[in-house]
Design a protein that fits this description.
Mean pLDDT of chain A: 95
Mean pLDDT of chain B: 96
Helix content of chain A: 25-40%
Shape of chain B: globular
Strand content of chain A: 15-25%
Low-confidence stretches of chain A: 1-12
Radius of gyration of chain A: 27 Å
Largest sheet of chain B: 5 strands, antiparallel
Number of strands of chain A: 33
Strand content of chain B: 25-35%
Largest interface: A-B, 31 and 28 residues
Strand order of the largest sheet of chain A: 3-7-1-14-11-12-13
Strand order of the largest sheet of chain B: 4-5-10-6-7
Largest sheet of chain A: 7 strands, mixed
Number of helices of chain B: 13
Oligomer: heterodimer
């Protein structure tokens, strides 16, 4: 048994400061490390039944008949429910987060392999699962649409015949920027480079799959729902609207969540089925999907087929960027993004560069694949945007014969240009790109790496150096233009200080592993001077937390973090008035420092926040007009998004004989503004970089031509392990957000956004001797070998 | 959590007990050792058996590595980890440690067994390629203790099919020992722990400067792991050289029959068959000389 006498120096920051920001071990970790986390599947209620879902075995078929009699007679089975039965209650269809509808259980047709067709409720999980085998469904199999490029062909099978008047598989068109101005810039440019790129369909694959326990009490009419949700409040409102249960009679509880990555933003049919099952049986009902169900039916990510074009002068001044996108949205448009942003925040595809014109035209289509589209830590499609721009900038560097770092440095938006309005209308709040880039290059030893590469090339060895520089847009968002199904994207926060000076802060956002219980305690601590250890952070239970839209798109710190700082300031303002009474001086004569007010010029005459808390709840008089207690609540509406940035450099070696890629080094310099807990930030960056290695090198949800999902288990859908990643080298610069109360920006998705292009750029750079300018992800050995032979192909 | 269909379960107390149960229950029963292939298939309901006979208690009887002057005998219940860590096996056939280092992960290696690997008869399975390379003999025991010994070619009847009949079990693998041997294994995988895109094992036996015998075994390039007699014929009696390895690689590429799948294209796999044949022969010769 080892006894730890002293923690590493890096964890002392917080002890030295008494309060606030700095490295600090996560408050939530003891329970996770001891196996005492409590997840949805840990919920056990008396009399609880178990639900299993029968899913479509084919991608596209008309349902001819369903016979449930054998399943109903199976031992332990309490109910078998089909789409036809739900239709009688008006519950067979539900709205998606993108104003489309999605079948809860299929009534007419199945539209993707894995779609929900019927469910069984039984006394245990095994009985429910076994009974699924006994449901006899007759299908009339139809031709599927699998390749998005085929979806709009005149003879393509029609997928959404449920929609009135729908005659094709068109989902939506979207454009941004100025087409004519962009055309003019391209017409006069010295150099125009065009490149087709595919960002394949990938899956977030959180360790915990999705699930719910629904407990409807028929006497008081209250529904308690434990569910794997990143947005408990938004889900509650939507259940009220869809199921007609009054909102005050719905309690959504999101307990410990084993990873989200956007996979747990949508409302899935399984949640609704569990609710229906509890109402029908009068018992609590648990539904937990298995790994295959999670991979084949829940929110995927990406699936963008893009053409990127970039125009520049011969000396490397970027003039314009243009792109055309074909977006595969699957069978139902289940994208989780602000309503006015059907392509998410893809509009930031102009990247970190000061250019003259930009234009994007996008067409989205339905295919016979699972719905979803915004997930896997993508910041609402910024992954796709950054991949596009960082790949075509490298293509341009190749065309011009310029160093890709030099080309980027030459075209960065300059610090004095912020706030900077991009050619597609985004207002970047702050940024100072060159120092971030220079730091990454220094850490990498960039010039030395290039020399090494030259030597290795001469010997026939394949080494590549890839750069990506990204600007993220996170913290959705201002309620004037951002909402999800009419719900504004503002977030509440409530802070109570107890009589003994301990506090509880209640958040509207919900952690899926981001460390909220620590970070938010530190934010409040910094403002109010109570140590983080004395601040309890509550989240995830709609009956016990204020309304807000939840955790995704790296929005917790930009939105709820601001709310937490402001609510603490509100409490501090009240504390100041109480302190003025206690010290018998005017408010203006008080000075605040580290948890205490003292009289200006007399630091010895002071009261601590703990003294004030006791007075606020005590028996003595309070200043005129001041109520007892020390608490406050606010709702924070961000005035803008925050725009973190970062410079990533990746070094790869490729075995010329087997075409295997080894990521040798990865340098990540992130600027997320004010840093609250650097350890947590680094952890988030490490995770995102690992995701990036997965996407760049191995991950893809593939389908065969019949629409069978080929990635239905973790044997087939590969995610990276520690053996595929190097020791991450992280660094940081700090450019605070001017509009955020503490200057913080989000960071949760930065690494997922920035790392794939760095890795792909490195692989392509390594393959330069073979004349390779582009190769699509995933860069498996086989696909790299194809590229080496001049046969790089889009993935299928 | 993925759950299998209902089955009955019994722990065997001896090899004879296990064989007795197999004989009585026929094709509805399956032995379970490490379970790392069988259980996922059952959970995915790709395999459904009425009875599982657990042989994990038989390690005393079936878990051993015995090195003799003419033969190495390995019990069917010997775990991957034991194969990886055995110094005597590494001395005789370093190909085992090469392969074990790239088989799955430590959790799987703690449980998975040699016999289970061979009986799964997955065309991508590493130890099958190793045993093919080393010209292993498989000892199959049946009712009444009757034993028969078959070659790897005979043992693997087809993908996921072996010569082990109902009422029989694989109890031992025998590897012939000849002087001047060097062996090596190499695998290309998309990610650590994945099945092979292609893997190759090579063994050479040298006498003086010349190759007395050579064998190459490939995995994931056809319906079963493949031994390539043409390579043996081409190498026998020759001095090892790069051009000879090139020739062997070309034979490997030409004689295998890979399919395009998520792990790679058939062309790439054929290329790897050549590349890995060259690499493993090169290393096997180095080891034979040292």
């Amino acid at each position: 048994m080892t006894t730890v006498h002293e923690r590493a120096d890096t964890f002392h920051d917080n002890d030295q400061k008494p309060v606030g920001y700095g490295r600090m071990l996560r408050k939530e970790d003891p329970r996770f490390l001891r196996g005492r986390g409590r997840y949805v599947d840990d919920v056990q209620l008396p009399g609880m039944l178990h639900l299993a879902i029968l899913r479509a075995p084919v991608a596209h078929a008309r349902i001819v008949s369903i016979d449930t009699s054998a399943a109903e007679a199976s031992p332990g089975v309490r109910a078998v429910v089909t789409g036809a039965m739900l239709a009688q209650q008006g519950l067979a269809w539900m709205p998606t987060l993108s104003n489309d509808v999605q079948a809860v259980l299929a009534t007419d047709k199945v539209r993707f392999q894995g779609q929900e067709v019927a469910f069984v409720v039984a006394e245990d999980r095994y009985a429910a699962r076994d009974a699924l085998e006994l449901i006899d469904v007759e299908y009339d199999v139809l031709d599927p649409v699998i390749d998005a490029r085929r979806a709009l062909e005149p003879d393509a099978p029609l997928i959404r015949d449920d929609l009135d008047g729908k005659a094709n598989n068109h989902c939506f068109d979207w454009e941004t920027g100025d087409e004519a101005a962009t055309e003019a810039v391209f017409a006069r440019a010295d150099v125009v480079v065009s490149q087709d790129l595919v960002y394949p369909r990938v899956h977030p694959a959180p360790m915990e799959t999705c699930g719910a326990v629904a407990d409807f009490d028929a006497v008081d009419g209250k529904l308690r729902l434990w569910s794997t949700t990143q947005a408990p409040h938004a889900h509650r409102t939507l259940y009220a609207i869809v199921a007609g249960i009054p909102e005050h009679k719905i309690q959504v509880i999101s307990p410990d969540i084993g990873g989200g990555f956007g996979n747990k933003v949508p409302i899935y049919p399984g949640y609704v089925c569990a609710i229906v099952a509890s109402i029908v049986t009068g018992k609590p009902v648990k539904w937990m999907e298995d790994r295959s169900e999670n991979l084949i039916s829940t929110g995927f990510a990406r699936d963008y087929i893009m053409r990127g074009e970039i125009a520049a002068t011969r000396d490397g001044r970027i003039l314009g960027i243009r792109t055309n996108v074909l977006a595969d949205h699957g069978a139902f448009n289940g994208t989780a993004a602000p309503v006015k942003y059907p392509a998410g925040f893809f509009g930031v595809f102009t990247g970190s560069y000061d250019i003259e014109a930009a234009y994007c035209r996008m067409t989205a289509v339905y295919t016979n694949k699972a719905p979803g589209g915004v997930a896997y830590a993508c910041s609402f499609r910024i992954t796709e945007a950054v991949y596009l721009v960082e790949r075509i900038v490298d293509c341009l560097a190749d065309e011009l014969g310029m160093d890709p770092a030099e080309l980027r440095l030459k075209n960065f938006i300059k610090p004095e240009q912020f706030p900077y309005t991009t050619r597609t209308g985004w207002v970047y709040d702050s940024g100072n790109y060159e120092p971030t880039m220079r730091l990454a290059m220094d850490m990498a030893g960039y010039a030395e790496l290039r020399r090494e590469q030259e030597e290795k090339r001469a010997r026939g060895e394949l080494m590549g150096i890839g750069i990506a520089f990204f600007t993220e847009a996170v913290g959705a968002g201002p309620r004037k233009n951002m909402d999800i199904l009419g719900l504004g994207m503002a977030d509440g926060c409530e802070l109570r200080v107890h009589p003994t000076g301990k506090a509880v802060v209640r958040l509207s956002v919900q952690s899926q592993g981001q460390g909220h219980e620590t970070t938010f305690a530190q934010i409040v601590a910094e403002e109010i001077g109570i140590p983080p250890a004395d601040i309890e952070v509550l989240h995830g239970d709609t009956d016990n937390t204020p309304f807000g839209l939840g955790t995704y798109g790296s929005r917790s710190t930009p939105v709820s973090g601001a709310a937490a700082a402001l609510v603490a300031r509100k409490v501090r303002d009240k504390a100041r008035i109480i302190a003025s009474g206690m010290l018998e001086v005017s408010v203006a004569d008080l000075e605040w420092e580290k948890g205490a007010f003292h009289v200006k010029g007399d630091p010895g005459t002071s009261v601590t926040i703990q003294d004030i808390a006791m007075r606020a709840h005590g028996a003595g008089d309070l200043p005129e007009g001041i109520e007892g207690g020390l608490e406050a609540q606010i709702c924070y509406n961000p005035s803008n998004l925050t725009y973190p940035h970062g410079a990533y450099i990746c070094v790869v070696d490729i075995d010329p004989g087997t075409a295997q890629v080894k990521v040798r080094r990865f340098i990540a310099v992130d600027d997320c503004g004010t840093r609250i807990n650097p350890m947590i930030i680094e952890g988030q960056v490490h995770g995102g970089l690992t995701d990036g290695v997965g996407m760049a090198l191995m991950e893809m949800i593939a389908f065969d031509e019949d629409g069978n999902c080929l990635g239905a288990s973790l044997m087939d859908y590969l995610i990276p392990t520690s053996l595929e990643v190097p020791d991450w080298e992280t660094g940081f610069t700090v450019t605070p957000s001017p509009h955020h109360p503490i200057g913080a920006k989000g960071v949760g998705e930065s690494a997922t956004v920035g790392s794939p292009p760095a890795i792909v750029n490195a692989v392509v750079d390594a393959l330069k001797p073979f004349g390779v300018r582009h190769a699509d992800m995933p860069l498996t050995p086989s696909r790299v070998w194809d590229a080496m032979r001049g046969q790089a192909r889009p993935p299928v | 959590m993925q759950v299998p269909a209902p089955f009955e379960y019994e722990r065997a107390t001896s090899v004879d007990h296990a064989i007795g149960l197999l004989e009585r229950l026929g094709s509805t029963a399956r032995l379970i050792a490490g379970g790392h292939s069988l259980l996922p298939m059952m959970k995915l309901r790709l395999a459904n058996f009425d009875y599982l006979i657990d042989i994990n208690d038989l390690h005393a009887e079936l878990g051993y590595i015995e090195t003799g002057p003419d033969e190495v005998r390995i019990g069917a219940l010997t775990r991957h980890r034991e194969l990886l860590e055995s110094a005597q096996l590494a001395a005789a056939f370093p190909i085992f440690a090469d392969a074990e280092r790239v088989i799955a992960d430590p959790v799987v290696r703690n449980r998975g067994t040699l016999g289970g690997s061979l009986c799964q008869a997955d065309p991508s399975e590493d130890l099958s390629a190793v045993c093919t390379t080393l010209d292993a003999r498989c000892v199959i025991r049946g009712p009444g203790g009757a034993e028969r010994v078959v070659s790897m070619e005979e043992f693997h009847v087809g993908p996921y099919e072996t010569a082990v009949a109902d009422g029989e079990m694989l109890v031992e693998v025998r590897l012939p020992v000849r002087p001047g041997c060097g062996s090596a294994y190499e695998k290309v995988e998309r990610r650590a722990g994945d099945w092979a895109v292609v893997s190759a094992g090579a063994a050479v036996w040298l006498d003086g400067g010349a190759i007395v015998d050579a064998r190459v075994g490939l995995a994931a390039v056809g319906p079963n792991t493949t031994g390539i007699p043409e390579i043996s014929a081409a190498l026998r009696g020759r001095e090892p050289s790069e051009s000879l390895f090139e020739q062997a690689g070309a034979i490997a590429a030409g004689s295998c029959d890979p399919a395009t799948d998520q792990r790679g294209s058939a062309d790439y796999k054929r290329h790897l068959a050549a590349e890995l044949t060259r690499r493993t022969l090169r290393r096997a010769v180095e080891r034979a000389r040292s």
